[in-house]
Amino acid sequence: DTGTPTTPGTGSANGNTGIVPPGTGTSSGTNTGPARPGDGKFYSLDLFDIKVDEVRMGRGSNLEMIVTYKASTDNVGVQPGNFGLTVTDGDGVGVRYNGNLYRASGEDLTLIDGTIWMSRNETTRVRYVFVLPDGVTSLKKLTVQEHGTKPRTFDLSQVQLNTQ
Prior knowledge:
- The protein is an all-beta fold.
- Helices cover 0% and strands 39% of the residues.
- A hairpin with a 3-residue loop joins strand 2 and strand 3.
């Protein structure tokens, strides 16, 4: 399901598109608080906009995150090195994703090998995996940064973890 449009693009990043530029609240001009997974909104990074669709526990202590990227320009590629993603736990300890991209669909982890090339307004969904250390019982936030640009933060305080 990668590399193919899943959401039609309309308008510009500053128009009524569901895109929320950094630091501006929502595209309607109303500040609804911090970005949250599953809120259905795209948030601007640099060459891409991001929507965090789902955060869930995977096998073992793996935290899995399904993300949709939308290209804000032509001829751009999604690959593991494009983005820095860090989950911060309730104690303030940061955990980076495992360095791989996986297909968003399916129960098993299927590695995406190579680059997913995209045109303007094209979307693709990917899965990230974070190996959480033992003892993590809560999460605070996800920080996403594209190529050293200003980071975007998502509130993860409502994410439920398996705490055996």
